[in-house]
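Workshop exercise sheet. Pairs work together: one partner reads the sequence aloud, the other fills in the structure field after running the prediction. Swap roles for the next sheet.
Pair: D.N. / O.F.
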Amino acid sequence: MNGKQTVTLFRPVGQQELDLIQASGWREFPPRLYWQPIFYPVLTEEYAIMIARDWNTKDPNSGYVGYVLQFDVEFEYLSRYEPQEAGGRDLKEYWIPSEDLQEFNRYITGTIDVIHEFHPVPLKESS
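Structure field:
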């Protein structure tokens, strides 16, 4: 441990993004795609679960699977950004501009860990 104060953040992702994070040795998030202007880690595990479970599992671009990742970022670096409300006071996330993501990755301490995995709930057949 480097002795610096950190903040624990969460990130809901689909299969393709998870594969890229795994390929980095669980150390960094991949660059954003051209149509993704921000990287948005969220402040609470509950909010990340909601996105991974309710959105990623219905999204073909996510491979119909949702993962919740947990990771720590140095507080001093993160303090240059303000948390944003995304539809409610309990739904907060940081908006990191895509061009800042490489620098953001350098301030992650430790590894990025998978803490939840969600798959679609099969539809019940009507009888």
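Discussion prompt: Residues 6-118 form a domain with the ADP-ribosylation fold fold (CATH 3.20.170). What would you look at next?
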